């Protein structure tokens, strides 16, 4: 509770000249009388730790007062959905000195607005109190302040993320142990997700990707229904949430339990790339430069297999490497699986010629993924225009023999440290011998 109080106070210090209002999430109808499973809005969860739907928050910096608003619950609600904390109970449960109900928001805002010219509010809660606010709303400033705060994780946040990674890691190991030829991808998904539920983690950070064989060449594959073949690789990209904080882990392993020579060759390049990039991830390093570094290692590896040819820097500049590695190396991780990049103060231009979405100078407290990959994507490798463009850089005759391969991705979650290499939150086998040992039946 003290942790969330500190975060609210930090936000108040950044926005001292206005009332700040933040809305929680609401239930969303799936169909008729059924709602989607509720997951709290990330900003509200960051500031309160409250996971109930229909709440709101008012921060009054001048009076140093934080007010939590709860929906007013009647007996009809209790009959169907059970107990929900009332205002008195919520004070103790969530660590607020003042708790009111959401139908009291207009009156509370009217009482608090004296001495303020501005409001910092997201649009949902601002509409509810607009008539009583009569203040200039600056939602962009609120967004930027929250992005700035959320970028560097506190020790408490890192502990939530460590727990999410620990449980997710156990689930990945359970998958390796349980996987057999003839299973369906959704059976593997069930192994992972049941392990998370068994630990009490009912929310996943994102829909699980379970991709066997050629399906692993679809970066955000979601069908999860194909049969696992004996000679194929299985790529599983899956992670749980702890108190809203995400784990994002990918492992690729042989369905049979043993890598073939061809699988070992590709896997080794990806593993070497990831390990070297983790070692290089230090404060001051620009994420885009780190991505180019990963492309260099992958290009050299593919050249060693005869799939690429030519000058390495040229292969990066002309985009040939991106035929096999079309996504970014890393992204921020936190309450969102693709978390805030840190607000306007941290914004910077891409110093490289390579298009990449995540561009930031790494800082202590950043949590980022590290996820290089190599894929054999028919949509790219059989595209006539790309074949003409890269005919001197790619041995397409050799590439044709890999079109049933799928892909390899290895992804860990790391914390940037003030000194030395990052702290790796992910403890799942990834060395070839360790993966094969984890797959032993």
Q: What is the strand arrangement across the widest sheet?
A: 6-5-4-1-7-8
Q: Could you estimate the helical fraction of the residues in percent?
A: 25-40%
Please, how many helices? Answer: 16
* β-sheet strand percentage: 15-25%
* Overall pLDDT score: 95
* β-strand number: 18
* Largest sheet composition: 6 strands, mixed
Question: What is the gyration radius calculated from CA atoms?
Answer: 25 Å
Question: Given the helix and strand composition, which structural class is it?
Answer: alpha+beta
Contiguous low-pLDDT stretches (5 residues minimum) are none
C-alpha end-to-end distance: 45 Å
**Shape, please?**
globular
Description:
The protein is α+β, with helices and mostly antiparallel strands and 441 residues long. It is 39% helix and 15% strand. The chain contains 16 helices and 18 strands. The chain has helices at 2-14, 42-48, 75-81, 87-94, 105-112, 123-133, 139-151, 155-178, 185-198, 261-280, 287-304, 312-317, 378-381, 384-389, 396-400, 432-438, and strands at 18-23, 29-31, 34-35, 56-60, 65-70, 98-101, 118-121, 136-137, 209-212, 233-238, 241-242, 245-246, 249-254, 367-370, 373-375, 407-409, 412-415, 423-424. The strands form 6 sheets. It has a 6-stranded mixed β-sheet, with helices on both faces. The protein has a 3-stranded antiparallel β-sheet with strand order 9-10-13, with helices on one face. Strands 14-17-18 form a 3-stranded antiparallel β-sheet, with helices on one face. A hairpin with a 2-residue loop joins β2 and β3 (34-35). The longest helix is centred in the middle third of the chain and has 24 residues, at 155-178. The radius of gyration is 25 Å and the shape is globular.
